[in-house]
């Protein structure tokens, strides 16, 4: 998650060890700008992996305790939509296919999903219509073909 609450990436891994944490951090560094700070849970594999990556040596690392994670932590709450999508797509048995789907679907969902609790129904419909029109332009879908 970035400071705006947008999902940066999803990376599924079998283990939560140092090698997995290092792989995850390097994966994020390749595709995103350098962070000002890193916020993680208290899993000790993160600082061990961070110590092995020279680019992250000067970056502040903040640990969030379990109580804070439950109450107010965007990083922990960001996992919930991914888990919800995994549960809904029970047909995924292969971790590679699940990873491919979640990596591709995340940016699409962020474009279309709106925070409905913060706006009126009319405002929601207007914004959603504009976002879907942009999506149709990006994907070159002819509106005449999509009449229902």
From TrEMBL:
Residues 3-111 form the DDE domain. It comes from the Bacteria. InterPro entries: DDE_dom, IS_Transposase. Pfam families: DDE_Tnp_IS240. This is DDE domain-containing protein. It comes from Paraburkholderia caffeinitolerans.
